[in-house]
Each structure stands twice: as C-alpha cells, then as structure tokens.
C-alpha cells in the first residue's frame, strides 16, 4: 500500500480528476494550500520592504494498493502537466496500515 501526495496548480484539478477516473482511481482527498517551490513565490513591495508571498496550490492525497501506484502517478502527471515551472510534485510514501472506521477492515480492503 502507498500514500500518494500530489501538489498541483489549482486550475489543473479538473483535468487530474478526469485522468484519475480513467485510471479507476476514485477515492481522493483534495485541499487548497499555500506554498512555493522553484517559482519562489511572488514578490510584493510593501512600505519599501520586499516580501515574498506564497502561491495557491492544490494538494491531492490518495491511498492506493500496489497495482494502482503507477496508474495513479501517470494520471496525475498527464492531468497536471503544462510544461511550465510550477506544475507540481508527486510524493509516494509507504503506507503501513489502514483501518476503515465503520467496518474495522484493515489493509488493502480498507482502501477501497
């Protein structure tokens, strides 16, 4: 089992969701976040002081069984890619345990 976290441009969320549906990945969590990467945010000058701001981003979190790891990564990359700096990142983490609260199911069964 893996836990996939993707940070993408907010305007690419619909495309990513469409690609995930095609890959039969239906269970996702989406959050609006702030951050900066190689873009280095945006710069504002306020009262003669330079201030670096954070950019709006979207975070997608998905727990998948092993056979869905690569299809999930491929779907996110296809939906989020624009070719410009700031397209985002995908993090893949080992997921040691999952428990479905309502039924008590564990592991891969609890994911979906």
Structural summary, described in words:
With 112 residues, the chain is α+β, with helices and mostly antiparallel strands. The chain has one domain (2-111): Alpha-Beta Plaits, CATH 3.30.70.120. It has three helices and six strands. Helix 1 runs antiparallel to helix 2 (69-80). The longest helix is centred in the middle third of the chain and has 12 residues, at 69-80.
Would you summarize the structure shown here?
It is elongated and about 60 Å long. It has one domain: 2-Layer Sandwich (Alpha-Beta Plaits), CATH 3.30.70.
Keywords for this entry:
4-stranded antiparallel β-sheet; two-stranded antiparallel sheet; 3 helices; 23% helix; Alpha-Beta Plaits; elongated; 112 residues; alpha+beta
In total, the number of strands is 6
First-to-last CA distance = 11 Å
- State the name of the first-level CATH class: Alpha Beta
Q: Any idea of the CATH topology?
A: Alpha-Beta Plaits
> In which range does the helix fraction lie?
10-25%
Mean pLDDT: 90
CATH architecture: 2-Layer Sandwich
* Structural domain count: 1
User: Compute the gyration radius: what is it?
Assistant: 17 Å
Query: Could you tell me the strand content as a percent range?
Result: 35-45%
Major sheet: 4 strands, antiparallel
Strand-and-helix sequence, N→C? EHEEEEHEH
Cross-sheet strand order for the largest sheet: 2-5-1-6
- Taken from the alpha-carbon principal axes, the silhouette is elongated
Q: How many helices?
A: 3
Low-confidence stretches: none
Q: Structural class, from helix and strand content?
A: alpha+beta
